[in-house]
Specification:
41% of the residues lie in helices and 17% in strands. Strands 2, 3, 5, 6, 7, 12, 13 and 14 form an eight-stranded mixed beta sheet that branches. It has a three-stranded antiparallel beta sheet with strand order 4-1-8. A hairpin with a 2-residue loop joins β9 and β10. α9 runs antiparallel to α10.
């Protein structure tokens, strides 16, 4: 059984290089207000969802922007609502109805971040066309994807297993299970999917099967119907094949260009790729990678830099390295807390240590003065 990504803390877990344009079919443009006021939704017909304009729509003066936001890593660290909101603001500058694609690759993460993501995506999709493109979406990653009205899988993708675990013992928190089953069902409904699907992802005892007549799919919380998805032995996970066949996903796309064709946004007279999402994601990933690499080195340097000189020189070097650790926490607190195990309490202790070391330096300098 796959579980939500987990860290050994008291919290409960659930699971800048400018990039070049990904395709010569698209070119960058400057933001401007669009005259269109609506975005395509999953409730549109397949043909309507893939059409750039609707009957009676005003003449389009600006190409619609297509943003791809890569979301990699733990929910709350690599996959955050902050980057989603940055893309939202840029998309808003072009007017309503832009296309925002979330490429999700996550094993889960923090429950609290999941709540923030849900609020952000609910707001975004009321203005823009929001699409989930699944590489791997387990637990909190799956919860994120459910809020998107349109969803496509990569060929080897998986989505599901939304289980709440205790951070210390990695045991499922059964007392929260019923509430969480309801929340995931609500997330399914928010993305225009059958709420019966959600509980089967949360609890292995919930079975799921379905019948299919033409394009009409009917889900059942049992294992008796023609197409079986989940029995009592494990939590529900969708593959690309099962997701598409059951109508849980809108299709399968291996590459960006495949996805653009599926979405009907490959017409260069009406749409163009906007690299802003990739730039935002790259900047954040570089920052958290920098913390992973530099903070452990700073911890080592705190104890040895300037030690051969001793006295004021040693304290000054220790202050300098300690302050850099504090500064990293200001830039990426979640990475520091959950990956590097340096939380808020530890940072406050470091701040107090800096204050005390500065006092020691003043005392040493006073003593070194004539008459001191």
């Amino acid at each position: 059984m796959k579980h939500f990504s987990l860290c050994p803390f008291k919290h409960i877990c659930i699971a800048c290089i400018l990039l070049s344009a990904q395709s010569q079919l698209f070119a960058q443009s400057s933001p401007a207000k669009s005259s269109e006021s609506t975005a395509p939704s999953k409730s549109d017909s397949k043909a309507g969802a893939k059409s750039a304009a609707t009957v009676g729509a005003p003449i389009q003066k600006m190409k619609k922007q297509v943003f791809v936001l890569p979301l990699d890593g733990m929910v709350g660290i690599g996959l955050r609502h902050d980057e989603m909101e940055q893309v939202e603001k840029i998309a808003d500058g072009y007017g309503p109805g832009q296309v925002i694609i979330l490429r999700i690759n996550s094993n889960g993460g923090l429950v609290t971040e999941g709540d923030l993501i849900a609020a952000s995506l609910t707001r975004i999709k009321n203005k823009h066309r929001l699409v989930a493109w699944i590489e791997k979406a387990i637990s909190g990653g799956a919860f994120t994807g459910l809020y998107c009205d349109e969803m496509y899988f990569m060929p080897e993708a998986a989505l599901g297993s939304i289980t709440m675990l205790n951070g210390a013992t990695r045991q499922e928190i059964t007392s929260a299970r019923e509430d969480w089953k309801s929340r995931v069902a609500e997330a399914c409904a928010a993305g225009d999917r059958d709420p019966k699907i959600g509980p089967a992802m949360v609890h292995s005892e919930v079975e799921l099967s379905y019948d299919k007549v033409g394009d009409k799919v009917t889900f059942y919380n049992d294992y008796k119907h023609e197409f079986k998805l989940s029995d009592k032995t494990e939590n529900l996970d969708f593959s690309a094949k099962s997701a598409e066949h059951s109508g849980f996903s809108d299709g399968t796309a291996a590459t960006e260009m495949d996805l653009y064709r599926e979405l009907g946004v490959n017409d260069t007279t009406k749409f163009e790729a906007n690299n802003a999402g990739k730039v935002i994601a790259e900047k954040w990933q570089k920052l958290i990678q920098g913390a992973k690499e530099e903070v452990p080195l700073l911890i080592q340097k705190r104890g040895i830099e300037g030690s051969s000189q001793g006295g004021v020189a040693y304290l000054q070097a220790r202050i300098r390295n300690t302050q850099k650790i504090v500064d990293w926490y200001k830039k990426c607190a979640a990475e520091m807390t959950y990956d590097l195990q340096i939380g808020e309490e530890a940072i406050e202790q470091l701040k107090e240590e800096i204050v005390q070391m500065r006092k020691q330096i003043k005392e040493m300098q006073a003593q070194s003065q004539p008459g001191g």
